[in-house]
Design a protein that fits this description.
Order of helices and strands: EEEHEEEHEEEHHEHEHEHEHEHEHEHE
Helix content: 25-40%
InterPro entries: ADH-like_C, ADH-like_N, ER, GroES-like_sf, NAD(P)-bd_dom_sf
Pfam family, one: ADH_zinc_N
Number of domains: 2
Cofactor: Zn(2+)
Radius of gyration: 20 Å
Bound molecules: nicotinamide-8-iodo-adenine-dinucleotide, zinc ion
CATH superfamily of the largest domain: Medium-chain alcohol dehydrogenases, catalytic domain
CATH architecture of the largest domain: Alpha-Beta Complex
Family: Belongs to the zinc-containing alcohol dehydrogenase family.
Enzyme class: oxidoreductase
């Protein structure tokens, strides 16, 4: 049976502190609209995007009050009456990703850019997200979780995994190429290191601190550069790549500084894939962008198919999220850890207690 109230982490107003409440209402099955489903959460990852949403530091304002979260895994416990899509059934284990829903009928959706649909609903930003025990989501967009993949192993694939998988696909790289990953020790970055490895790329990981260094080298990075210790990032990257520079950079750092000098450390025809989301100007020198035939691409999560592919690769054991478990009540300290850059890999919240 479905309770009337639940635990949820609510941000009452943009920029305010989170409140973990135990009396937040649960939308009841009879109240679900066609196409909606109610998902009982098992666990959810915490993405740096959730911190941007909490702080309200992006040019598009989040809803208010807000329940964040968009890396959730749980069981479908109810589906709205008159739902036409029959692919998802009660009892299915599904994932809730950033792109909660899209129209599937506009130019962007038809082209596979579902995330760029003008009617897109965003979990934990424009609709309530996964930091509550029962989440209303959408049958068209929830992602079936492969049987062989545990829920806690699947959670962060739903945002961090699918995002970096998509970013590497847009990087114009080929087996043997050098890929530079600023932010490599974070949630997105440590998965980028692994997807890159699985694709036969050679990785230069950039981040800071002994823990992140150990993590990325264990996960298959060939070279490590500590951005706080390096006196000259460009020189260090050129040295790491045999003097020529990288073929591509996947910038997963949540800071503007992570983007600095990418035009200088890539070889001609190199691609900068912008993933990290500081609300700031890129600041690339136009002369060198043109003269070196540099490509600059924005890469924004992925579509339903990208999510399925990213999960399948994890289920095959090629990529494994490195995470620690926390409780919903610990969310505040997880945000603090993200803010301070202290979290290597990911934090995943157990939503059952
Ligand atoms: O679709 C998208 N493009 C998408 C999807 C999901 C998340 C974009 N994001 C964005 C988030 O909103 C955030 O801005 O990607 C960014 C990273 O998210 P995350 O991986 O969840 O954050 P994290 O775990 O805090 O990792 C960030 C890492 O960057 C390092 C930090 O040390 C941390 O390990 N870093 C920073 I901040 N500045 C750096 C620099 N100058 C740097 N590493 C190298 N050089
Ligand atoms: Zn995310």
């Amino acid at each position: 049976s479905i309770p009337n109230v639940q635990k949820a982490a609510v941000i009452p107003a943009v920029g305010a502190a989170i409140e973990v409440r135990d009396n937040h209402p649960v939308k009841q099955p009879k109240d679900l609209a066609p196409g909606e489903c109610l998902v009982k959460m098992e666990c959810t990852g915490v993405c740096h995007t959730d911190l941007h949403a909490k702080k309200g530091d992006w040019p598009i304002p989040p809803m208010s009050p807000l329940i964040g979260g968009h890396e959730g895994v749980g069981e479908v416990v109810a589906i709205g009456a008159s739902t036409t899509n029959q692919n998802i059934k009660i009892g299915d284990r599904v994932g809730i990703k950033w792109l909660a829903d899209s129209c599937l009928d506009c130019e962007m959706c038809r082209k596979g850019y579902e995330q760029n649909c003008s009617k897109a609903k965003l979990s934990g930003y424009t609709v309530d997200g996964t930091f509550s025990q029962y989440v209303v989501s959408y049958v068209n967009h929830v992602t079936p979780i492969p049987k062989s993949l545990g829920s806690t192993d699947a959670a962060s694939i739903l945002c961090a995994g699918v995002t970096v998988y998509g970013a590497i696909k847009r990087s114009n790289t080929h087996i043997g190429d050098w890929i530079i990953i600023p932010g490599a020790g974070g949630g997105l970055g440590h998965l980028a290191v692994q997807y890159a490895n699985a694709m036969g790329l050679r990785v230069v990981a950039i981040d800071t601190g002994e823990e992140k260094k150990k993590l990325v080298l264990k996960l298959g990075a060939e070279k490590w550069i500590d951005f706080k210790e390096s006196k000259d990032i460009v020189k260090d990257i050129l040295a790491a790549t045999g003097g020529e520079g990288g073929h591509a950079a996947i910038v997963t750092a949540a800071s503007t500084s992570g983007y600095a000098q990418a035009v200088d450390y890539l070889r001609p025809t190199g691609t900068i894939v912008c993933v990290g989301l500081p609300n700031d100007a890129l600041g690339a020198n136009i002369f060198w962008v043109v003269f070196k035939s540099i490509r600059i691409v924005g890469s924004y999560v992925g579509n339903r198919q990208d999510a399925i592919e990213a999960l399948d690769i994890a289920a095959a054991g090629k990529v494994k999220v490195q995470f620690e478990m926390r409780k919903l009540a610990d969310l505040k300290s997880v945000y603090e850890g993200l803010e301070e850059g202290k979290i290597a890999g990911r934090m995943v919240l157990d939503m059952r207690t």
